[in-house]
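quick one, 240 residues, struct below
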Amino acid sequence: MTQNQQISLDTPALKIELLLNQSISGFEHIILRPLELLDAPEIIMAVEESLSDLRKFMPWSHFPQTVDGQKQRIIQNHHKYWAEKDFGFGIFAPDGKKFLGGCGLHPRSLNPQCLEIGYWVRSSIAGQGLCTEVTKALTAYCFSYLGLSRVQCGFDTKNTASQRVNEKCGFKLEGVLREFCPLPASLIGKSAGWDGSGDVAMTSLLKQDLPNLAWYKDTLSRLKVLNWHNQEAKPTLGIL
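---
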């Protein structure tokens, strides 16, 4: 096995590091990595801090949030990450411990060479461009390391903050999926704070769109991807 072994859907990254183009809450870079059991208490603290924002558009936030429940979710996600090509990450500060939010790449398309980006950040750091930076980093990872042909992103039609992230990253609107992600029926009338429409705007980028993205070359140059031997991997699709 060579130091620069290619990253793929079957051999995904152990960790992704992104040097930020400007400081966010005093951080010069961030780390994206699969969650570990020791992260559970920190995640619960971030969720509890952010519940009023999360409950507007995230159905999962309406269910009970406990450390034990989070540990079970981490175990499930760990299996999915290495076996099912469903890649959940935590967004961490440079120390690799302070949890800033969650993101992921999910197989929600009929195209096996496509993944869907999801993200959220804790309320105390929201509005500073972190979701945009994470989305750009994951897009570059998908195309230049995983070799995908399509990356998509969906957001509730009432979630204007997520819409702005998509627009800043150059994702193209394809259409609206009606009643695609409503609040679960078991929670309707029982949980406060839901503000979503349940309708999802689906956006995408294709490999051929990359030369038109002014940010892509810069983001790729600030990305460091480590393979599962904790060695730096090189992109298979170079800087355009």
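The chain has a mean pLDDT of 94.
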